[in-house]
Amino acid sequence: MIPVLASCANQQSQINTDLAQPVSVMDIKKGGIIQYINTTGTASAASQVVLYSEMAGNYYLEKNPKTGRAFKLGDIVEKGEALVRIENPETENNIAIDTKKLNLEISELENQKQKSLYEKGGVTLRELKNSEVSLAQTKTDYENAKIQLAKKLVRSPFRGVIVDLPTVTNGTKINANAAVVTLMDYSQLSMEVNLPEKSMSTIKIGQEVSITNYTFPKDTLKAQINELSPVVNTETRTFKGKIVINNPDFKLRPGMFVKADIEVDRRDNAIVIPKEIIVAGARGKTVYVVERNNAQARIIKTGLENEKMVEVIEGLRDQDRIVTKGYETLRDHAKVKIINQ
């Protein structure tokens, strides 16, 4: 008879196992959580400039030293780099820089001679001063000539990216004040956003902001709140803010629509769980933990939260085994079978 009883017990155990609901669990460990205020906006370049020719002449697009080819749209240029050259032999002849350089050398020699003679009593102080005036004038003439001659080169005023190049064939004559290059510096960007009125007391100048865009979903750029308006729009119940975005690798482009997550609070040693596993009910927010192969419903009280995670300040303990899959149809005290950790 004993073998028969043992067989029945085994069958009952197998039935109970088969009826147990399969779930996945995770061990709760303390960690950090950051609460954000989410907003969106359009990024704008920090600096933009249109460069013009300062003299008339024949247009030549310079070569990019990094590529060995003529500059083109999208090229990154360095501060002071020559982008366009204007050739005008007539203007260069009128500038006569070689002549002015020779005049400067002659004036320097004459001034040195006058100084030597004055020390020996060979010339008057007036004659010495006249040589100094002549030297100063020739220096000015030479420096002005260099300034005029430098106008043949259109140089970048800052490190930036070429965003527009008018279609001009090399050797074509252009007028003075013709637009030849448009540059943008978007290593730093700015963005104007509308923030909810209720956040006025929690958002401060200098707060960190995380910037993302769908073109680089895995990359996050760092930014900061730079300006805040003290005025609330009565129609939208929002106030304006300006965000400065660090973009050293030029990943984010001016005009892109981006998401901004403004950090307003954080906890570094908290019980944090996925938001999606919380079941809302009449008794409040509920999650399930596993104890001795039974599901135990726990009413929890939450604190900080973001899009994916939430802080639990009451109802759970460190090292509790919480159900992460299969919780949707669970009931309190239901039998469960853990299918993976």
Which keywords apply here?
341 residues; alpha+beta; conserved putative lor/sdh protein from methanococcus maripaludis s2 fold; Elongation Factor Tu (Ef-tu), domain 3; 3 domains; 6-stranded antiparallel β-barrel; 4-stranded antiparallel beta sheet; 4 helices; 22% helix; elongated; disordered N terminus
The profile of the biggest β sheet is:
6 strands, antiparallel, barrel
Query: N-to-C terminal Cα separation, in Å?
Result: 41 Å
**Structural class per helix/strand content?**
alpha+beta
What overall geometry do the principal axes of the alpha carbons give? elongated
Mean pLDDT over the residues: 89
**Tally of DSSP β-strands:** 20
Tell me roughly what share of residues is in helical segments. 10-25%
Strand residue percentage: 35-45%
Q: What are the segments in which pLDDT stays under 50 over at least 5 consecutive residues?
A: 1-9
How is the topology of this model organized?
Blueprint: H1 2-19, E1 21-27, E2 30-52, E3 57-61, E4 76-77, E5 82-87, H2 89-95, H3 97-119, H4 125-150, E6 153-155, E7 160-164, E8 173-174, E9 179-196, E10 208-212, E11 221-228, E12 238-246, E13 257-274, E14 279-281, E15 284-291, E16 294-299, E17 301-305, E18 309-314, E19 321-325, E20 336-340
Parallel strand pairs: 1-20
Antiparallel strand pairs: 1-19, 2-9, 2-13, 3-5, 3-8, 4-7, 5-6, 7-9, 9-12, 10-11, 10-13, 11-12, 13-18, 14-15, 15-16, 17-18
